[in-house]
């Protein structure tokens, strides 16, 4: 039981944006962590060369700004993106980059 609890424990995420690295502690909004580090979330896009279509980002995006077929490169609709940065914390491949 103890092991399972440990496995589920959320971990901090380290994000690099425009050369600035900041840490997002568990339970903290990406935007808040960025602001604390003096970083403003810029307009974002998906790098199609890196994106594997895992869809982790689409589940994290509360405005539905990210779309794409599974296993295909995704894209961000700028008109729906509120620059919350949550997708940055979910993409393990670093496919989401400044636009
Ligand atoms: S920054 Fe926020 S709103 Fe924009 S695509 Fe990422 S998760 Fe969606
Ligand atoms: S989390 Fe990253 S690799 Fe996965 S679909 Fe989103 S942008 Fe692509």
Question: Briefly, what is this?
Answer:
The protein is α+β, with helices and mostly antiparallel strands and 99 residues long. The protein is built from 4 helices and 6 strands, in the order αββαβαββαβ. The chain is globular and about 30 Å long.
Molecules bound to protein: iron/sulfur cluster
Largest sheet: 2 strands, antiparallel
**Secondary-structure class:** alpha+beta
The fraction of residues assigned to DSSP E strands is 15-25%
Order of helices and strands: HEEHEHEEHE
Q: What is the count of β-strands?
A: 6
Q: Overall mean pLDDT score?
A: 93
Which CATH top level class fits? Answer: Alpha Beta
CATH architecture: 2-Layer Sandwich
The main sheet orders its strands as 1-2
Plain-language structure description:
The protein has helices at residues 2-8, 30-36, 56-60, 86-90, and strands at 13-17, 20-24, 44-46, 66-67, 75-76, 96-98. With 99 residues, the chain is an alpha+beta fold. The chain has a single domain, classed as Alpha-Beta Plaits, CATH 3.30.70. The strands form 3 sheets. It has a two-stranded antiparallel sheet with strand order 1-2. Strands 3-6 form a two-stranded antiparallel sheet. The longest helix has 7 residues, at 2-8. The protein is globular. The protein starts with a helix and ends with a strand. It holds the Pfam family Fer4_9. Keywords: Iron, Iron-sulfur, Metal-binding. This is 4Fe-4S ferredoxin-type domain-containing protein. Residues 42-71, 72-99 form the 4Fe-4S ferredoxin-type domain. InterPro entries: 4Fe4S_Fe-S-bd (IPR017896), 4Fe4S_Fe_S_CS (IPR017900).
């Amino acid at each position: 039981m103890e092991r399972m609890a440990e496995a589920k424990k959320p971990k901090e995420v380290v994000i690099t944006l425009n050369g600035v690295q900041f840490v997002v502690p568990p339970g903290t909004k990406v935007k808040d962590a960025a602001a604390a580090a003096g970083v403003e979330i810029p307009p974002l896009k998906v790098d199609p060369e890196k994106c594997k279509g895992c869809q982790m980002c689409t589940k994290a995006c509360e405005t539905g700004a990210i779309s794409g077929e599974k296993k295909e490169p995704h894209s961000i609709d700028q008109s729906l993106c509120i620059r919350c940065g949550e997708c940055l914390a979910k993409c393990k491949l670093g496919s989401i980059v400044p636009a």
